[in-house]
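A reminder before we start the practical. When you read a complex entry, don't treat the lines as separate problems. The point of joint prediction is that each chain is placed relative to the others, so the output describes one connected object in space. Small molecules and nucleic acid strands, if listed, are placed in the same frame. In the example below there are two entries. Take a minute to note the order of the lines before looking further.
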Amino acid sequence: MSLLSQLMSSFQILPGVGPKSAQRICFNLLQKNKTKALELADILKQACEKIGECNRCRTLTENELCRICLSDKRNAEQLCIVESPADLMQIEQSTDFSGTYFVLHGNLSPLDGVGPAELGFPNLVDLLAKEPINEVIIATSSTLEGQTTAQFIAQMCNQTDIECSVLARGVPLGGELEYVDSSTIAHAFGSREKI
Amino acid sequence: MSLLSQLMSSFQILPGVGPKSAQRICFNLLQKNKTKALELADILKQACEKIGECNRCRTLTENELCRICLSDKRNAEQLCIVESPADLMQIEQSTDFSGTYFVLHGNLSPLDGVGPAELGFPNLVDLLAKEPINEVIIATSSTLEGQTTAQFIAQMCNQTDIECSVLARGVPLGGELEYVDSSTIAHAFGSREKI
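Here is the predicted structure of the whole assembly.
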């Protein structure tokens, strides 16, 4: 197999990239962007070798502790629990939350062999015991698995005197009712807010 | 800047990849596909260092001559002229053309400083003189630049006794007339074929 074909099939490991886009990417890089492509190859190699999980919050970082866990400007009393580093980044970009995080890397799913240990619950318990945390915000997805995981964490917190909350659920901002799914509308209708 | 942010901005050199997809790609590779990502980094580096242009037809290859130019099963009398290696691949996949190719790497565009020399015309003239070519098929795009380039090549061929043709233009197969642009319809109407 020629190097070009190897490169094309290798690019297909990227999410959302099929044979046609892989071909387009290869030609673009090799014809117009060789310097930057070499840079990408180098950074990708370094990233694969050096990036691992933060020892405290389990997000991705090339150091022992991530930028947020190292910072002394974060509120040590609030902890936000998320499913993935991408969700962490999303919350950092969208909110002014100043506490710290804990990344589960998934949701409870006993059938797939994902139990509390796989999600780092031992570390979480440890962290809740050692640190001066008094509020936990559970930001798992609003799916069945996400909610089950949230319930599990909430029960754990309720045994201590740590306050526990989940993200509000309802009609998305800017969402036209006509296009919002019926279970969301039913929930939003039941949990209507005083205006 | 952290290695993760560097990787995210580096992935944005890929065509069609913005900040959000770059983020998705990074997390996917680092969390689930590290081995394959390392492989990609390695192949990309090799490809950038080794892949250059074929000495005869100017397509991309890691050798002196590409697979097609090296093959003794190709018809040496037919030459197809294309704009890019991607177009070459498209014709190889879609037709049973058995001749050889010549890649222009663009179209004539004097305002952008792309003249005959940049498109490899000296090599092309050489090739037409030395090889037993008696038919040239010009497969440039059906755009203004592509057509100008085709005209230029046709004039060159008409000074010799090499037969010269361009791809047929008309309504695409499976195209519903309602959605075909009006200049294509006008052309197809004018060049209607006997049935």
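Discuss with your neighbour: The longest helix of chain B spans residues 34-50. What might explain this?
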